[in-house]
Design a protein that fits this description.
55% of the residues lie in helices and 10% in strands. The strands form two sheets. Strands 4-7-6-5 form a four-stranded antiparallel sheet. Strands 1-3-2 form a three-stranded mixed sheet, with no helix packed on it. Helix 2 crosses helix 5 and helix 6 packs across helix 8.
Length: 230
């Protein structure tokens, strides 16, 4: 799921994980820059995936914080010049100039068009949006983690009435976590899927089961929300 770009990204990280294990590396430094962050925010905005997608790439991510992105506040040209000054070879991925890929089109057509229409500073503004959105998303995720325990009954089932009483942003996070825990791949789960599940809580009219990625199914039964893999 996610097309060739997602598959290539997964393959890159798998190779980096293998290399890190082989060399006993405590961390892997990635070269993502502020420009990459701006592109990631715009891609998230286009998908309509919510605050977490708008938060872009984290400075530290992966198991045990393996991946570090020290250049997220540095623009691409500055990073490139710094490498050249220190005689560090720069390798350009040919896919980055291939218009068949969404990110490539955004980089070479979309962002320049935005800067032409809105003026310079678009990249900086998008990167700032990522930082602010990440703070908000982290706070909401923490709230949802606490709330999840309060909306389950003694058997661990989600209670629809208690879910209904949560703020929508918190409730949708609880639902997303439950769907992923049931076996749905996080990368294939989009806002529209969670909205459909949410309607079992907020717009209940006796509708049937909701089919989700990973053969996961969500149904409402006796005032409980049942999410399981079929």
């Amino acid at each position: 799921d996610g097309g060739p770009e997602a598959a290539a990204r997964d393959a890159r990280y798998a190779a980096l994980d293998a290399a890190a294990e082989r060399h006993g590396a405590a961390a892997v430094l990635l070269g993502h820059t502020r420009d990459d962050q701006a592109e990631t925010v715009l891609l998230g905005l286009a998908r309509g995936s919510g605050t977490r997608s708008l938060s872009g790439m984290a400075a530290v991510s992966g198991a045990a914080g393996r991946y570090r992105r020290p250049f997220l506040q540095v623009d691409r040209q500055t990073a490139r010049k710094a490498c050249l000054v220190q005689s560090i070879p720069v390798w350009d991925d040919p896919h980055n100039t291939d218009p068949a890929y969404t990110r490539s089109r955004l980089r070479h057509e979309g962002l320049p068009a935005l800067e032409k229409a809105l003026g310079k500073g678009v990249v900086e503004a998008l990167a700032r949006t990522a930082r602010l959105s990440r703070d908000d998303a982290d706070a909401l995720d923490a709230w949802a983690a606490d709330a999840e325990r309060s909306v389950r009954d003694a058997s661990g089932q989600l209670e629809c009435a208690k879910l209904y009483g949560l703020p929508p942003a918190v409730r949708r996070r609880v639902l997303r976590t439950a769907v992923i825990a049931a076996g749905a791949p996080a990368g294939s789960l989009f806002a529209r899927h969670i909205e459909e599940v949410d309607r079992l809580i907020t717009g209940w009219r006796g509708q049937g089961a909701i089919n989700l990625p990973g053969r996961v199914e969500a149904t409402r039964q006796g005032g409980r929300l049942v999410i399981r893999q079929g």
